[in-house]
Amino acid sequence: MPIPLEPCANGSRVAVCCSGVTKTYGEGVTAMKALRGVNLEIHTGELMMLVGPSGCGKTTLISVIAGVLRRDGGDCSVFDNDYLEMAEVETTRFRGQNIGFVFQAFNLIPALTAAENVAAPLIINGVKRRSAVEQARELLVTVGFDDRMMRSLPQDLSGGQQQRVAIARAMAHNPRLIVCDEPTSALDSETGQMVMELMRRLALGKDRALLVVTHDTRIFGFADRIARMDDGRITRIETPPFAANGIPKQP
Ligand code: ADP
Ligand code: MG
């Protein structure tokens, strides 16, 4: 039974609800308990940051939330849907329509131009090539790309430009939840700030939420809430009292 969506105090809704989520890699003596009972709720309109030491389970947790990794136990719903109740083909469709993923290493296809990289997932989702490229170009304009940059291959773009392409690609299908794994770790401070500003502006909205894994203390000010993770569990949820470096929290 799906959990009914409850309105939250400020009128937002529950986007992600994890309760007692567990995940173990391997078996027997080599078993690695990566998630040991994660409780976490993310609301729409919210940028939740997930921080914690290397190996504490951050990537595992966001992979479970994004539906690319099956949990072993506990409850997890994403916009009222439970991956364990879906057939694989349904999960793929749900992800294609609702979830965007931004990786640390950008993960762009080297042989495709910036515009083609953004258009590719749309084409896979059944959008006609011409209209996919048109949409890709519009998205790239919103992340500050000109014609020449759109025609460039990833190798001819800077790290910050590549990450902007990756963000545009993650947003191409207008997902309700964007999940980012250390999106600024390969970027210098100024570019990292710009990328976060862009994500807040483009990816947040009344019905949308953003989950960002980071080690990067320089971007904490962009969070609405920060979830601290240690040894497979969320140990604390904090609300930053003010935005770092005077950055406004609301777009
Ligand atoms: P984080 O992203 O916080 O660095 P991960 O979620 O990647 O942590 O990993 C959590 C733990 O699970 C680590 O001890 C890691 O070595 C282990 N782990 C991650 N992926 C696998 C895998 N595919 N097979 C076995 N162990 C894994
Ligand atoms: Mg990780």
Structural features, described:
- By secondary structure, this protein is α/β, with parallel strands linked by helices.
- The chain contains 7 helices and 9 strands, in the order βββαβαβααααβαβββ.
- The chain has helices at residues 58-66, 88-98, 114-124, 129-142, 147-150, 159-171, 189-203; strands at residues 14-25, 32-43, 47-51, 73-78, 99-102, 177-181, 209-213, 225-230, 233-238.
- The strands form 2 sheets. The chain has a 6-stranded mixed sheet, sandwiched between helices. A 3-stranded antiparallel sheet has the order 2-1-4, with helices on one face.
- The longest helix is centred in the C-terminal third of the chain and has 15 residues, at 189-203.
- Residues 1-5 have low confidence and may be disordered.
- The chain binds adenosine-5'-diphosphate and magnesium ion (MG).
- Magnesium ion is lined by residues 58-59, 181.
- Adenosine-5'-diphosphate binds at residues 25-26, 32, 34, 52, 54-60.
Descriptive terms for the model:
single chain; 251 residues; alpha/beta; Rossmann fold; 6-stranded mixed β-sheet; 3-stranded antiparallel β-sheet; 9 strands; disordered N terminus; binds adenosine-5'-diphosphate; binds magnesium ion
